[in-house]
Amino acid sequence: MNKTLPSSRWFLFHNRALLIKETDEGARILTDDDLCTLDLAPDAPQRIGSFDGRDCWVASVNTGTAPAGFAFRELRQVHPHLTENDFALAMRAFHILHWLTTHRFCGCCGHPLRMSVQEIALQCPHCGHSVYPRISPAIIVAVTKGDQILLARANRHPAPPWYSVIAGFLEPGETLEECVRREVKEETGIDVDHIKYFGSQPWPFPDSLMVGFTAKYAGGDICIDPVELLEAGWFSAGDLPALPSGFSIAKKLIDDFVTRHRH
After folding, report:
1. What secondary structure letter does DSSP report for 76?
2. Among 70, 81, 89, 253, who pairs with 142 as Cys (CB 3.0-4.6 Å)?
3. What distance in Å separates the CA atoms of residue 247 and residue 99, rounded to the nearest whole number?
4. CATH topology (fold) of 136-261
């Protein structure tokens, strides 16, 4: 007897929005059956692996209009309505799709790249050059001074007025700890020490890996870089400003501070 193959998961994006199925229980990732009912033509679907024995596919679509019962949602918006595993798969799908979209041609000879049949990689049939998904490491750090934490508002997110911890990208030849010291100094004028690893989180907006740290104030007065920040200040656990969403490593760092300094 032939066994029915488990239905594949489909991650279809229009720009940065994921197409999901709306149910009474929340949001659900699309399946083969959903795809059959939709009048959509996925552009160059790419298999990105499997989970629980089910293939996972990603593709873009040329319309942002969803039929009844479906909706396009930004990943940040849909997170509370997906399981942890499905959200992780959706982030992986978005990361890979962005990489495929921005790496169509070989950087060595200019010929069109082709997807490898053996791994998640692009290969040039002309010169043999291989291109793997880009991952941009960045640090994110909770700096504390006694029972206060350093929080700042970034220029790139003027509204809503969220505050968060300091973050920045790693530079060539730099250790993660050196990056922590440099970013905090450049953006706020503060010196730090006692740098300790906290955790990490894939952050595919579009291709980062956030490496989290804690650090302690070692000197200096707040003097913000106006190109990066709108404002920065020291806050106590009982008097925090508006904060980022609960699934981000930034929020986890702040929650850890609150837990340790709650009176």
Report:
1. H
2. 253
3. 23
4. Nucleoside Triphosphate Pyrophosphohydrolase (3.90.79)
